[in-house]
Design a protein that fits this description.
Elements: E1 12-16, H1 19-30, E2 38-42, H2 49-60, E3 74-77, E4 92-97, H3 104-109, E5 119-124, E6 137-144, E7 151-158, H4 160-172
Parallel strand pairs: 2-5, 2-6, 4-5
Antiparallel strand pairs: 1-7, 3-4, 6-7
Helix pairs in contact: 1-2
């Protein structure tokens, strides 16, 4: 169950205790994602942002490995081709890291919106910088507990697309 709070209590919050559970959450989120979606991740160093994106990548069926793009700023992970040579069914993953970027204009210089219509775009450290890439977006904050390995993950949908998608996910549970 990834959305335990119910539709009347958006944003939704869940607690994650292990790296495996964080990747599983990413796989579940991938089931909601479609081409054109923007996901903005926030949280301190070591919170599990890249681990969550690894799960999203696995759920989308993209080529990996999905690793932190801190030094290359952005990576595109295309969908793995099937044995018959046909493309997979999901969108590609654009994984960006805005940690070393200082302004919205530097985010614009990455041309992340070039792939926006055909890919899921996930921006780590994107709060305050990447919101202009899409009116509808999913913001995810990950906060580690001070005295344990547990993380509190909060999902906050912006725009009709995400409010509807999060409510549908809750209804399916």
């Amino acid at each position: 169950m990834i959305f335990p709070n119910g539709p009347a209590r958006l944003p939704t919050t869940t607690r994650i205790a292990t790296d495996v559970a964080m990747r599983d959450l990413g796989r579940q989120l991938a089931g909601l994602l479609r081409a054109g979606d923007l996901v903005i991740l926030t949280g301190p160093l070591g919170a599990g942002k890249t681990t969550l994106v690894q799960g999203i990548g696995a759920g989308l069926g993209v080529r990996g490995p999905v690793t932190s793009p801190t030094f290359v700023i952005a990576r595109v992970h295309p969908v793995v081709s099937g044995l018959s040579g046909a493309s997979g069914s999901g969108p590609a993953l654009v994984h960006a890291d805005a940690y070393r970027l200082g302004s919205i204009s530097e985010v614009d210089d990455l041309d992340l919106d070039t792939d926006a219509a055909t890919a899921v775009t996930v921006v780590e450290w994107g709060a305050g910088l990447a919101e202009g890439l899409a009116q509808d977006r999913l913001e995810i904050s990950i906060e580690p507990d001070a005295d344990s390995d547990v993380r509190t993950v909060q999902l906050n949908g912006h725009g009709a697309r995400w409010n509807d998608a999060l409510m549908e996910a809750v209804d399916r549970l």
